[in-house]
Amino acid sequence: MILNNKIVSPSLIISNKDKGEIIKKLKRNGFYLISIGHGLGDKEMIERSNFGILFNKKINSFGDYKTENVKDIEKKIDEISNNI
């Protein structure tokens, strides 16, 4: 849950919905957002970001870019950053 622009949770687990809401609010403030996630619990975050990276080859239903290689992620972020 987000209260007063702060994440409030009884644990460190943030729901898929809350991750998506956080991204939505940050985008409203003009941020260009690249998100990296590994599973269905990151789906809304990845889909609402300007560019979503899925770090899981078993799931192919969402994300702009999919890989299991950290070096590929670094290269993709550099590429995107150079084009913003």
Quickly list its features.
single chain; 84 residues; alpha/beta; Rossmann fold; three-stranded parallel beta sheet; two-stranded antiparallel sheet; 3 helices; globular
Question: What does this entry look like structurally?
Answer:
It contains 3 helices and 5 strands; from the N terminus they run E-E-H-E-H-E-E-H. By secondary structure, the protein is an alpha/beta fold. The chain has one domain (15-82): HAD superfamily/HAD-like (Rossmann fold). The strands form 2 sheets. The chain has a 3-stranded parallel beta sheet with strand order 3-4-5. The longest helix is centred in the N-terminal third of the chain and has 13 residues, at 16-28. The chain is globular, with a radius of gyration of 13 Å. It starts with a strand and ends with a helix.
Blueprint (SSEs and pairs):
Layout: E1 2-3, E2 6-7, H1 16-28, E3 34-37, H2 43-48, E4 51-54, E5 65-66, H3 70-82
Parallel strand pairs: 3-4, 4-5
Antiparallel strand pairs: 1-2
* Mean pLDDT figure: 88
Question: In total, how many domains does the architecture comprise?
Answer: 1
Percent of sequence in beta strands: 15-25%
Question: Helix/strand/pairing class, anyone?
Answer: alpha/beta
N- to C-terminal separation? 31 Å
- H/I helix tally: 3
The CATH topology name reads Rossmann fold
How is the main sheet built?
Answer: 3 strands, parallel
In short:
The protein is globular and about 35 Å long. Helix content is 38%, strand content 17%.
